[in-house]
Specification:
- This protein is of the alpha/beta class and 377 residues long.
- It folds into two domains: 2-159 and 324-375, Medium-chain alcohol dehydrogenases, catalytic domain (Quinone Oxidoreductase, Chain A, domain 1); 160-320, NAD(P)-binding Rossmann-like Domain (Rossmann fold).
- The chain contains 14 helices and 15 strands.
- It has helices spanning 39-45, 93-96, 136-139, 151-154, 160-171, 186-197, 210-218, 231-238, 256-259, 266-274, 295-300, 308-313, 325-337, 356-364, and strands at residues 2-8, 11-16, 28-37, 60-68, 80-83, 130-133, 141-142, 178-182, 202-207, 222-225, 244-249, 275-283, 317-320, 349-351, 373-375.
- The strands form three sheets. Strands 3, 4, 5, 6, 7, 14 and 15 form a seven-stranded mixed sheet that branches. Strands 10-9-8-11-12-13 form a six-stranded parallel sheet, with helices on both faces.
- α5 (160-171) packs across α6 (186-197), α5 crosses α13 (325-337) and α8 packs parallel to α10 (266-274).
- The chain is globular.
- The termini are close together.
- Bound molecules: nicotinamide-adenine-dinucleotide (NAD) and zinc ion (ZN).
- The site of zinc ion (ZN) has 6 residues, from loops.
């Protein structure tokens, strides 16, 4: 099959790879119809991890089931399915509590498993013609009848829609509250949509890219252009000097030269200032800077200069982590199917798999207009 393969930093190519096969009786094989490029893929593409050459990228996958293992009971050949990026076993202590991002079985000793990702297990990605899905009954969301019609909407259930929602859940956004969201990339835009779904009153979205800020506005946010002056001051002006009730971090560790930022701590320290005393902050941006080889390394990888004193004085709280995608998927799927949410609004490019290497270049450079790329293998 054809697949998007990593050769080294800034070097991905479409290559011929072996077709995946059913390896366990619980596996499902999916022919990929849509697979997205994610901001998280850029950590690997840009060389900020030590993912090995030869790996297939792609953790935002959707497609049609073409084969099921002997022990698969629910998923049937022909079903249109979307796969949460987290791979869970469904039966460990964490999966039982819906914490599938922290499955204890699929990537023992580390924080969770995913398709085609550094440090998250040996599973190949879905930027390819076919994907093997372990524990298929647990890891495939069977989509409604209109799956093909709303393909680009449902494909967002694999990651960014639930991840944006997770940011607002971690921050505890309630109806009528004000929220400041750092980052108007795909994840921040989905946090904007989610804050609106949760009934937030004032949703302020910080970024410097005019095209992304425009999308934030279309989704119900107030654009805060950080290139036009301090984002914190702009948020304080809009909140009577108090700060927002809640904050969402949707930027993560950013390559410094790309954003003119020397350090990875900018957004966290600004959030402490832009959120009110006793407010809470949800962090979904990724702060691990390299692929950890051991538990000890994992603990060191995100050291940063954080103003804990101000955070403590303001009595704020922070919640963090990968999204437990599966725990939100049924509800968010229903919102798409009833027409109440249209996450595909942020899709800027629909391309073939052959065009993926070029798309990586543009998306990595945050070229104007390249907000979200969906690939159609
Ligand atoms: P992205 O890189 O496309 O978007 C990030 C945006 O942040 C960009 O538009 C950039 O201009 C903006 N930005 C940079 N510095 C900023 C600053 N100081 N203040 C405000 N905005 C700033 O990435 P994305 O796809 O939207 O993903 C965002 C983050 O979420 C990444 O770190 C990604 O790895 C992470 N992520 C986490 C999960 C999870 O489960 N927790 C899932 C998916 C993605
Ligand atoms: Zn993703």
């Amino acid at each position: 099959m054809k697949a998007l393969v990593y050769y080294g930093p800034l070097d991905v190519r479409v290559s011929e790879m072996p077709d995946p096969e059913i390896e366990q009786p619980t596996d499902v094989l999916v022919q990929i119809t849509t697979t997205n490029i994610c901001g998280s893929d850029l950590h690997m593409y840009d060389g900020r991890t030590n993912i090995e050459a030869g790996r297939i990228f792609g953790h935002e996958n959707m497609g049609r089931v073409v084969e099921v293992g002997k022990a698969v009971m629910k998923v049937k050949v022909g079903d249109m399915v979307c796969m949460p990026f987290n791979i869970g076993c469904g039966h460990c202590k964490n999966c039982e509590r819906k914490l599938t991002a922290f499955c204890l079985t699929m990537n023992p000793g580390f924080a969770g498993a995913a398709y085609g990702f550094a440090g998250m297990g040996p599973y190949e990605g879905g930027q390819a013609e076919y994907l093997r899905v372990p524990y298929g009954d647990f890891n495939c969301l069977i989509l409604p009848e209109d799956a093909s019609e709303k393909e680009n909407d449902y494909a967002m259930l694999s990651d960014i829609f639930p991840t944006g929602y997770h940011a607002t859940e971690l921050a505890g956004v309630k109806p009528g509250e004000s929220v400041v969201i750092y980052g108007a990339g795909p994840v921040g835009l989905m946090a904007t949509l989610s804050a609106r779904i949760r009934g937030a009153d004032k949703i302020m979205v910080v970024d410097s890219h005019p095209d992304r800020l425009r999308l934030a506005e279309e989704l119900g946010g107030i654009p805060i252009d950080m290139s036009k002056g301090s984002a914190v001051d702009q948020v304080l002006d809009l909140t009577d000097g108090q700060g927002a009730d809640r904050g969402c971090e949707c930027v993560g560790y950013q390559c410094c030269n790309k954003h003119g930022q020397e350090q990875s701590n900018v957004t966290m320290n600004e959030l402490v200032q832009a959120v009110k005393a006793t407010g809470s902050i949800g962090v979904v941006g990724v702060f691990v800077q390299e692929d950890p080889k051991s538990k000890e390394e994992l603990q060191k990888k995100g050291h940063m200069d954080f103003d804990f004193g101000s955070f403590w004085m303001k009595g704020q709280s922070i919640a963090t982590g990968q999204a437990n995608v599966k725990s939100y998927n049924r509800e968010l799927c229903a919102l798409i199917s009833s027409g109440k949410a249209k996450p595909s609004a942020i899709v800027s490019h629909e391309l073939s798999l052959d065009e993926a290497p070029d798309a990586y270049k543009h998306f990595n450079a945050r070229d104007k207009g390249w907000t979200k790329v969906v690939l159609k293998p």
